[in-house]
Design brief:
Length: 133
């Protein structure tokens, strides 16, 4: 995926035009330029497959990537074998993985972002939980 650099004022203007967390800066630009929406489904509707991770009613397909920033370090994980795997360790909940990183009680649904297989954008996982309800 290509990236572009914008100054702070442009970024702020794009961010202000986002109507929700589900609307990306790219969505805003597409609308401003008169392009059709390229919205992808929030959660794939297909039946769960072997290796998918289902937690709190949200299905993360195998291969879903996770990331979080904590104390200037980026943590990466991936859904494998029905769990979130970070540095070779398996976690059954997003919060358990977040607590392992921070050594503090943390809401994993606000700590982690994910990128579903085949999608370009990252989403805070709390947004997926809301849409699955």
């Amino acid at each position: 995926m290509r990236t572009i650099e914008v100054d702070f004022d442009v970024f702020k203007a794009l961010t202000m035009r986002r109507t929700s967390e589900d609307v990306t800066e790219n969505d805003v630009l597409r609308q401003m330029l008169g392009f059709s929406s390229k919205k992808e489904p929030t959660v794939p509707a297909a039946r769960p497959e072997v290796g998918d991770w289902i937690t709190k009613g949200v299905r993360f397909p195998a291969g879903t990537e996770f990331r979080a920033k904590y104390k200037e370090q980026t943590w990466l994980g991936r859904v494998e074998g029905g769990a979130l795997v970070i540095n070779g360790k398996r976690y059954d909940t997003p919060s358990a993985a977040a607590v392992a990183i921070t050594d503090n009680p943390v809401n994993g649904w606000t700590f982690w972002e994910c990128r579903l297989p085949g999608q370009a954008g990252w989403k805070i996982i709390k947004a997926l939980r809301k849409s699955a309800a």
